[in-house]
Design a protein that fits this description.
ten-stranded mixed beta sheet, alpha/beta, globular, 707 residues, 42% helix
């Protein structure tokens, strides 16, 4: 099949899917909400650009102060030799946007003959050290190591302008990746073009600045990743490790290849070398030594390549051959490469499916995979996209993603596994994946059984049209399962349902994934009720219409002082109007951090009358030691027992009575709180899912086949 025909087929399936879902939305949401959703799905938006590069104001020297600490977490070492105007600009940038982390700044003067020695002592908080004689870059850096006091040593050229947040991004990466040994910044030219996002070393010891002259927002270069080396213009390393490795190797004196050699030493010591593009530093390349390798200090670059190649001869046998063009495919050649196709980037602060997906991605990264995420709508999701990139996920978006078909044609051959999330995405993309990534194992992540949720919604609404739509969804969803290698389910109950509906489908269970937060506040310190759930999800909308309209007034009759807090994005006017007519109801809408509500409210409610899958709102509350009152539908497939782990009720009066009972009974509350935490650890923690994740993504013969 030609690329153009495959693209047309993909877009036809996408349009048909949008029409079908639009018609179903008209029945349940009305024309205004449906029109809004259609607009969101069809609107093309450029990615949000990063903040403009910061440049400090110029002007004559005047004394100022820089960040300083007697107990620094990081020691910023700036070796200098003349060029005092550049040093001044660098220090002004550090002073204007000080890091959050405690730090000290050391300027190591290698014998400057300009105003450096006059200006530096006048800068408050700066540690200024004048070397006895000129020894070059390596000698100055090693002096800085000897004088440093921080947990981390950060080498920073004086011809750089560190951007806001640059240091904290480096230090946060060390915190999140315990085996990180050296982390470099993304280097930019003053005009904003990319100078280097890590470096590539070829088999002969020659080097390539990855991404040079490309867009700094290109997805190939914007995610955290392992790299062959990082430029000494801006890198961080634990001081203890730096000392163990003997600092920078003096055989490369006065300069060049010492940073490449340091990266190889770090890796030989069993630690990782990473570039963190979230740390941005503008570098006026060549200020100190120019760019001509035929004369001056720059000539040492040619000589030192031979020194480096001789020292690391065995290690260089594993490097790319000379003449290879570095690409994401060959930069991650030693890792399993896993592609995730979904409609949009997960936003874990907005819905439980996103939280599950992000935690699954985290597990894949921990197991050594390189994860690539392609949102089929192509939109950059702002901070959500940047958060994935900072973790190490290669996230594509417009304008660099020019279409799913073209992208798969260019990239499909590098993946060992492709996961498609939700049946309509799989229905649109499966043929393309089989055409352009025939070697890849195909995984269909249901998130929940859509046809089961739609069928139950039709039953609650007594709507024959919705029932027919649910059957069409069933046919499409089961067809996708039949055509993929493995189907991932989130619920044991759904596993039983599928055993009856599609016994030959190969399935694995990977449920919601949560970290255990702990008990939170005690019973006596908590008060009120809370619900968390986005309102674009129809079961949540129905649940709040029922609870606020019918159940909560019954609760207030017995607990007149209790308040109900409704949290979730995209609250419709109908819910706000309903809440306005009920005393004690507060509709908060979207809340960036729900933790205070999980830790501080006494009871969570999950009054879902239809749905499918596993309910993240229940997991979230239990992970915080917050007991729940829920419906039978809400606790389905979650290994929960009425009266032991949760209270279950399906009628309005029974639900209200259960809330009142649990709210007033401290012993019962404590029992459910403890059992809920145990339930999360046993069934919904990342440890509980680890073996299934390995079978699905790292073992091509995995899966449980039903007969």
């Amino acid at each position: 099949m030609s690329t153009s025909l495959a693209d047309a087929r993909y877009h036809l399936k996408r349009v048909i899917g949008l029409i079908r879902r639009g018609l179903a939305s008209l029945r349940t949401r009305g024309w205004r909400a449906t029109l809004h959703r259609v607009g969101v799905h069809t609107r093309q938006q450029p990615p949000p650009r990063r903040e403009p590069l910061y440049q400090p104001a110029g002007g004559p020297f005047a004394p100022f102060s820089v960040p300083s600490s007697d107990t620094p977490r990081a020691s910023i070492v700036i070796p200098v030799y003349n060029h005092c105007a550049h040093t001044l600009a660098c220090l002004r940038a550090l002073a204007t946007h000080p890091p959050i982390a405690d730090c000290e700044i050391l300027v190591i003067d290698d014998g400057s003959s300009d105003a450096t020695a006059e200006w530096m002592p006048q800068i408050e908080g700066l540690r200024y050290h004048l070397r006895a004689q000129n020894g070059g870059f390596i000698a100055a850096c090693n002096d800085g190591l000897r004088l440093s006091r921080g947990q981390y040593v950060v080498l920073l050229n004086n011809d750089t302008i560190p951007q806001p947040g640059w240091l904290d991004a480096l230090l946060d990466t060390f915190k999140r990746i315990p085996d990180a040994g050296l982390i470099g910044s993304q280097l930019l030219y003053p005009d904003g073009r990319l100078q280097e996002s890590g470096g590539v070393v070829f088999a002969d010891g020659s080097c390539w600045s990855y991404g040079r002259f490309e867009s700094a927002e290109d997805p190939r270069f914007t995610s955290l990743r392992d790299t062959d080396y990082c430029s000494g213009a801006a890198l961080a390393i634990p001081r203890e490790l730096f000392e163990q490795l003997g600092g920078l190797d003096t055989r490369y004196a006065p300069a060049y290849y010492e940073d490449t050699d340091l990266a190889f030493k770090v890796r030989a010591a069993g630690r990782r070398v990473l570039v963190q593009p979230a740390s941005r530093v503008v570098h006026d390349e060549g200020t100190s030594n120019g760019t001509d390798t035929g004369s001056g200090i720059k000539a040492y670059q040619v000589r030192n390549q031979q020194v480096f190649a001789a020292k690391w001869r065995d290690a260089l046998e594993q490097q790319l051959p000379v003449g290879t063009v570095p690409t994401p495919a060959n930069q991650h050649r030693h890792q399993p490469q896993i592609l995730i196709l979904d409609e949009s980037v997960p936003q874990p602060d907005r819905d439980s499916a996103s939280l599950r997906q992000v935690n699954l991605i985290r597990m894949l990264l921990e197991d050594g995979a390189h994860v690539v995420f392609v949102p089929t709508r192509g939109l950059h999701a702002g901070k959500a996209t940047e958060a994935l990139q900072s973790m190490g996920v290669e996230v594509w978006h417009a304008p660099f993603l020019k279409g799913v078909t073209a992208w798969l044609r260019d990239n499909g051959a590098r993946f060992s596994t492709v996961m498609m999330v939700r049946y309509h995405v799989a229905n649109e993309c499966l043929a393309l994946v089989k055409q352009f990534a025939p070697q890849a194992r195909t995984v269909f992540d249901t998130v929940d059984l859509h046809y089961l949720r739609e069928r139950r919604g039709a039953e609650v609404a007594a709507d024959a049209g919705l029932a027919r739509s649910a059957e069409r969804t069933r046919a499409s969803e089961l067809a996708v399962m039949d055509a993929t290698d493995v189907t991932v389910l989130v619920s044991a109950a759904e596993k039983e349902q599928l055993a009856a509906d599609a016994p030959r489908v190969q399935v694995e269970l990977i449920s919601n994934l949560h970290e255990i937060a702990g008990h939170g506040a005690d019973w006596a310190q908590r008060r009120d009720l809370v619900f968390v759930g986005g309102f674009l999800h129809l079961p949540n909308l129905d649940a709040m219409q029922w609870f606020i309209g019918e159940v909560f007034p019954l609760i207030r009759e017995q607990l007149p002082d209790v308040h109900f807090h409704c949290i979730g994005a995209d609250v419709p006017d109908s819910i706000r109007t309903l809440a306005a007519g009920q005393a004690g109801v507060t509709v908060h809408g979207y809340v960036p951090d729900v933790t205070p509500y999980m830790d501080g409210k006494r009871i969570a409610v999950a009054p879902l009358r239809f749905g499918a899958g596993v309910k993240g709102k229940i997991n979230l509350s239990m992970a915080h030691g917050q007991p729940l009152v829920a419906t039978t539908c809400a606790v389905e497939g979650m290994h929960l027992h009425d009266g032991q782990d949760v209270l279950v009720a399906d009628q309005a009066q029974a639900f209200a009575d259960a809330v009142v009972r649990l709210y007033s009974d401290q012993a019962l509350w404590q029992q459910l709180s403890g059992n809920g935490l145990r339930n999360i650890a046993q069934h919904f923690s990342m440890d509980a899912a680890r073996e299934a994740v390995k079978r699905v993504f790292f073992n091509p013969t995995s899966g449980t086949q039903r007969n």
